[in-house]
Amino acid sequence: MLGAIALALLAVVIDNYLPVGGLRLPAEIGKLVIQGTTITMEQPHLTGFTGDQRPYEFTADAAQQDITKPDLVQLQRIRAKIEMADKSMVHLWADTGLFNMKTQMLLLNQNIHMVSSTGYEARLSQASIDMNKGTVVSDTPVWVKLLDGDLNAKQLQIDDKGSVLRFTDVTMVLQSGKQDAKAGQP
Fold it and tell me: Which of 54, 87, 88, 114 could form a disulfide with 50 if both were Cys (CB 3.0 to 4.6 A apart)?
């Protein structure tokens, strides 16, 4: 989608604003920067609804696409807000990402942080998200804050659009006082 937007904007600029002496690169057109074969969109913002009508919002500090690799979009300082099937909200942050528009794969890297409105939190350093299948795989250590403790794992796999979570080589620390205190309340 970014590629189509960037190319359409580039075509409009060339057709309507090309200086007589030619376009001098790098050129900056509002929040669109062209340098060599790379198009950078600053502060991209995308909102919409999933196939089952759950809202989402996605922003980044920058999205870059090399026109010689039109299927790939590099993302910087990613932020997302997604409504889950149970109507809870999940907020996600990541330092970098690479989205392949052809395969619908999003690779997130560095300082991935997720927080849900239900009280769960997770930190990862790498995640591969298959948008078509609704799966997430992380082959690097994962930390999850549960309602009554912490979970550490070497790997994570999420299937069935979040319905199934699999952790490998798990260590858990449970805090029994939280559940006992809730059970004793009227």
Answer: 54
Task: Give the up-direction half-sphere exposure of residue 144: CA atoms within 13 A in the CB hemisphere.
Answer: 21
Q: What is the dihedral of CA 165, 167, 173, 179, to 10 degrees?
A: 20
What's the whole-number mean pLDDT along residues 97-123?
90
Please state the domain extents for the chain: 37-176
pLDDT digits (tens, 9 = 90+) for 163-172: 788 999 999 9
State yes or no: pLDDT of 23 exceeds 60. Answer: no
